[in-house]
Amino acid sequence: MFGLPIATERKQQLPKKAIYAKFDLKTAQRERFDADISRIDIVAVVSSTTVPTVSIGESVKEFYVLEIQMKRKEYDVKNILLLTKLIDQKMIFALQYEGQIQFAIFHTKLFQSIWQPTEQAVLPLSGLSLDTVWENIVKNIGKIDVADDNTLSEQIVIDDRRVKLLAQIETLERKMVKEKQPHRKREYFEQIKKLKEQIKL
């Protein structure tokens, strides 16, 4: 499944009722969860035992692949984030809906892949340790290019900051176009210039 070695495969259902009971979810949380998610199964465990060519990492000892049957494609992301908080394990979520898969993974924040046909959905294992394998999967799902000597977590912070700066620039550019007063236009121009310089840093 998902191009993973046969030795990693599992088939263990996580009943929603057991999750509700164990973590004492409020009625509103249960209803929101149930509106999106039909069924949850552990379908793979990646460890140095199931993949002998990969060594145990310093921070990643193993990780699980959970297949989640979705009731709708436009789901509430809070439900996936809830699972990352409730279950204290490294996990990759394979969200399945009408013959398509979307991978989701949490590493400082939640990353999601595009939806793709189930038969094309692959999780490549590249690296000699589970730390590296995990980080490469995060990069793959999140489409992250780690530059220079940055760590993955540092690159995520840099990318997030860049996105916020670009959004600020876009807002100021719209204001500048609508502004009638020359001195206000100039102020917007200078603000945009400073933000663009911050992006280059």
Please outline the helices and strands.
Layout: E1 9-13, H1 16-23, H2 27-36, E2 37-47, E3 62-70, H3 77-86, E4 91-97, E5 100-106, E6 110-112, E7 116-117, H4 130-142, H5 152-178, H6 182-200
Parallel strand pairs: 3-4
Antiparallel strand pairs: 1-2, 2-3, 4-5, 5-6, 5-7
Helix pairs in contact: 5-6
Q: Brief overview, please?
A:
The protein is 43% helix and 22% strand. It is built from 6 helices and 7 strands; from the N terminus they run βααββαββββααα. The model has no long low-confidence stretch (mean pLDDT 90).
Description of the molecule:
This protein is an alpha+beta fold. It is 43% helix and 22% strand. The protein has helices spanning 16-23, 27-36, 77-86, 130-142, 152-178, 182-200; strands spanning 9-13, 37-47, 62-70, 91-97, 100-106, 110-112, 116-117. It folds into two domains: 6-142, no CATH class; 152-200. Strands 1, 2, 3, 4, 5, 6 and 7 form a seven-stranded mixed β-sheet that branches. The mean pLDDT is 90.
Observed structural traits:
201 residues; globular; 2 domains; alpha+beta; 7-stranded mixed sheet
Please mark out the parts with pLDDT under 50 across 5 or more consecutive residues, or reply none.
none
Total domain count: 2
Instruction: Enumerate how many helices there are, as a single number.
Output: 6
The proportion of strand residues reads: 15-25%
H and E string: EHHEEHEEEEHHH
Strand element count: 7
Query: Structural class of the secondary elements?
Result: alpha+beta
Distance between the termini: 43 Å
Radius of gyration: 21 Å
**Average of pLDDT:** 90
Largest beta-sheet details? 7 strands, mixed
What is the 3D shape? globular
Classify the helix fraction into a percent range. 40-55%
